[in-house]
Design brief:
With 83 residues, the chain is an all-alpha fold. Helices cover 90% and strands 0% of the residues.
Length: 83
């Protein structure tokens, strides 16, 4: 009987270690995914800025995406004030 209870206790302890290990792996995976998400957002922002700058340079400043966005925002604000 002692062998069975020792085996059961060992199995229980091993199971608990596995579960706690899985929790740690999950937390680590979440941290990695969070960092990857931030890196992807930064890469997208950098790419957008570079594209806007290239467009501005290619058109000698005639087209400026930032100004266009500002104009659209002002127009939408004016439209809401009128109604």
């Amino acid at each position: 009987m002692k062998l069975n209870s020792l085996g059961a206790a060992s199995l229980l302890a091993l199971s608990l270690m596995m579960i706690s290990g899985c929790d740690q792996v999950e937390k680590s995976a979440q941290q990695v995914m969070g960092k990857a998400t931030e890196s992807a957002k930064q890469a997208i922002d950098d790419t957008q800025k570079a594209a806007e700058q290239a467009l501005s340079e290619a058109t000698n400043g005639l087209i400026n995406p930032q100004k266009k966005d500002d104009q659209e925002e002002n127009e939408s604000e004016s439209n809401t004030k009128e109604t």
